[in-house]
Amino acid sequence: MAMSSTPNILLSLFSIHFLLSLVKINEAKVPAIIVFGDSSVDAGNNNYIPTIARSNFEPYGRDFNGGHPTGRFSNGKIATDFISQAFGLKGAIPAYLDPSYSISDFATGVTFASAGTGYDNSTSNVLSVIPLWKELEYYKDYQTKLKANLGDGKANDIIKDALYMISVGTNDFLENYYAVPGRSSQYTIKEYENFLVGIAGNFTKALYDLGARKISLGGLPPMGCMPLERTGNLMGGSECVNSYNNLAAEFNSKLNDLVIKQNKELNGMDMVFSDPYGIMLDIIQKPAFYGFEVTGVACCATGMFEMGYACSRTNPFTCSDADKYVFWDSFHPTEKTNAIVANHVVQTSLAKFF
């Protein structure tokens, strides 16, 4: 670990312990973390549907509890796991479709997320994964089971006080608009952004109508810096694709405007915009400060393009120490990166919910 990163990491650890102490003092204002989105927050739902968008095999999960591949697209935990822990809840949020968990497990946290999905239904069709509207149907089913298990009163308290986290959108651009024909012939990129923001607004309004009040709408990371995009940027010297980063920043601004608008329109709505863009870009631009050594390629295999099944446990090139890498595979961060991003989000946008 780089010496320059030590003060920053110590500060992060202190911040987490301080926030945990606040949770004990306030007796946990948030009884559950309920998650919607894509592979950034999928804990294994895709293991139970017919799709190639899976990660329930080695080396995924090699640094998770017991070295167990769960379906998380990481070597270990994902950001929402760390956020759950910071709120004094369990250290890993389970997938709703995982039959080894029951409604009593889901009462304090659950994820309906599906790797490869997006706001746009056509995005989920690319890899035959769970569309966002179906995630909402699963949530309705969850409410029914929660009420049957706990009674209406206690279940409604959880529904009202839970923190709802949404992390989705990257696939709409990189796996759909720029990758397959269809949407790019129907919409200009700015029109497509507005189309997606409209879907996001309908989704958060639907959650509100179902009883949600505390919502975190997540933004996009600097997606032009993902190793997969850098690998394809041969003319640009394999540096970050600035046009994709600028698109992410512009889209994030529109999501933030949506948050401000709905907080004014919906009585009792307490929605925040959680932005991973700045902290991720800072990590990529100043890796040594955070204790990283490699930013341009990922840990798994050659680190240039592999993810999912291409990230094979038999590949001889996979790195031995993922903590030196910002990215685990060509699209997804390492557990260490996830922890830093989660800590940043907890201290900024989510701090008001403690």
UniProtKB/TrEMBL annotation:
One of its GO terms (molecular function) is hydrolase activity, acting on ester bonds. CDD domains: SGNH_plant_lipase_like. Keywords: Signal. InterPro entries: GDSL, GDSL_lipolytic_enzyme, SGNH_hydro_sf, SGNH_plant_lipase-like. It comes from the Eukaryota. Residues 1-28 form the signal peptide. Belongs to the 'GDSL' lipolytic enzyme family. This is GDSL esterase/lipase.
